[in-house]
């Protein structure tokens, strides 16, 4: 049902017969129209409107005229009604214009509590408004010096009454007239600063950049976050009178009156008095006010004074205790030394709070290293000097100034590389602190250790100035900040003092490795900064550039091996042939190293190759030798594969071994032994999900080793020999351990080793063992001894 105003209905009734005639003409035209559907719909709509009103025939006819003229309910226009409209000289009823209405108190509550997530920003907003008022006065005083004659000092003063819960903020700015109070404070979201800046742009003689902060017109109302009553006393140089604006948090009205109290008069400017709510009276603490000013408005261009308690140490005389006085024979004229003590005398006075100057606004050529270091220590509460700093100004489609620092140590620990909430980047807009809580808007998390300030005049913010809007400008700023950060880190790596970059790498090396994984676009910037140990440099880390310079002419790839320590890496059997050839191998001993290098894939057109995986090409293939070895040991490989079964995917002749009989390598696209170990450690005891992720294992044998030659002879003589089968099993288990894998049954492996040791060490250092049956026979023989009978020789035929 459509609800019409009384005025609209009366207009339709007054149109009377004329509307009816138009409707009749339209009906005749519609009946002659070939579209029967349109006629049916038009009649139905006319009856619908007729049933909606009870004002008689004329109103029904008027609605029919309205119906025929335009189908505004269903959103389409009939041809018949168009013809009727054209044939009629009567214009349609004029549309009425209405203003949106709102419950002001409710709207105020929504604005204040929805825009600002943190109550303490009220002071930042009020100080920003005061700074704008001072900026306006300074700009206008250039052409009219009489404006600033009453109060030449331009400053902001904040007084906190803790006992009564009152905060008073006074500025000596431009002030407001009575009409400006009504326009600026009486109209929500109307910014006096925005109007002033528009006037500057429209003015032909407007020169210089404006540092005005406000732009939305709602900053003043943030006072109601903490106050239930706000009083504004203001005096403009344009008026001889001072006016007082007063409003309450839950009220839809405000009052303005002339201030006639001589004690409250001010020469020029604005004084805002906040009567705090019961749950916000803790903001009236002078120390809390000072802390908020230093946090949010430290770099406002005008001095900010806060009312603080101070102390001065004095020496006062101490009266002698009569009981301790002694009578002596000394001359009364002798001067005695007076006793004193130190006391602290307390008093209240104004204290300058924003002493630190924004050095990023100065020319970098005029700032010394000592000044950069001092600013770093004060701004970020550090006690050590930074490793490097970068001061730059970006111009073009995005304009901002910034100073970036590389800290000397990691405050969260060397192993913490995923902490995104570091609060290391402080964002300012026209020197007013906005936020330091970012989640990747300006820096990725792997560069979260970089500290600094970013100050922009045209950064796109929402009304609360706390949340960055997702925009193209922010993305451009992020790219330029990252580029400067990489240049700064590269400068440390190229420094003559090698210890500086060693210190940096010790603290933040893992961050850059994380960048290899997460930021593929910046691989070319990250890769030159990486450092690794190698087979030719076990004590000092080398860069990838140094590795490439040391490569052999015939070397086509960058070789690496991943392990848990340098000791295990350099003793791995995979390196035997490579080290004999004099090739260098990188040792990846950190858990993140292998993933980082695999993400890089290549450096300066040299692919990274894991020497613990199959199909290793060292560039020395000898087809004739390979054919001969395959002919000699091919069937032996098949025999070993049959014995090992599913434990290995294949058994083949190795080209990487020289002193070891065998080795177990990973598939080309599977996990290495080191990666498999790391994945098991992260699976929280559930290894079932890792079974399908394991890569294929290839068992490689060294045909030149004596053990393999004996195994080959055993196959040719007796393939079913049980000792040969046990030797194959033990050889596989030994290769499993030496290649970095974890045996599935360590106890079984230990039993095999003990058995082989028993065979090898049998009767080597001790006498042969006597069997128990032999011991019993010897014992019984000793018990049944008989005495020997001596028989004398007998002579027979003269002979003995």
From TrEMBL:
Q: Where is this region: Disordered?
A: 32-55, 316-338
What family classification does the UniProt entry report for this protein? Belongs to the heat shock protein 90 family.
Which InterPro entries does the entry link to? HATPase_C_sf, Heat_shock_protein_90_CS, HSP90_C, Hsp90_fam, Hsp90_N, Ribosomal_Su5_D2-typ_SF
- Enumerate the UniProt keywords alphabetically: ATP-binding, Chaperone, Nucleotide-binding, Stress response
| SUPFAM superfamilies given in the database record | ATPase domain of HSP90 chaperone/DNA topoisomerase II/histidine kinase, HSP90 C-terminal domain, Ribosomal protein S5 domain 2-like
Query: Gene3D superfamilies, alphabetically?
Result: 3.30.230.80, 3.40.50.11260, Heat shock protein 90, C-terminal domain, Histidine kinase-like ATPase, C-terminal domain
PROSITE patterns, A to Z: HSP90
Where are the compositionally biased (Polar residues) regions?
45-55
- Name of the featured protein: Heat shock protein 90-6, mitochondrial
Protein species of origin: Camelina sativa
